[in-house]
Write the structure tokens for this entry.
Amino acid sequence: MIFLQITLRIYGDINYQLPNGVDPANMTIQPVTVLRELISSLRIPQYAIWFVKINGERVDFDHPVKDGDTIEIYAPGETV
């Protein structure tokens, strides 16, 4: 099975949503095709997310996720 290596940064109070033992700074994940699948696999409810950036660009939940991506997830009220 092929895995994706990503960097995940979470801003705000959504960190508590992550499963125990998850290191968001440097993650290896099973392949996902879009951001929505990644968020679902992390068990973060979409309503808890204000917006997401991939590689510095603000994207929607249907944006593709690729190996090496840096993904930033912002909780409501967080500043950019």
Q: What stands out?
A: The beta strands are 4-11, 27-29, 51-54, 57-59, 70-74. The chain has one domain: 4-74. The CA atoms of residues 3 and 31 lie 6 Å apart. The chain has one helix and five strands.
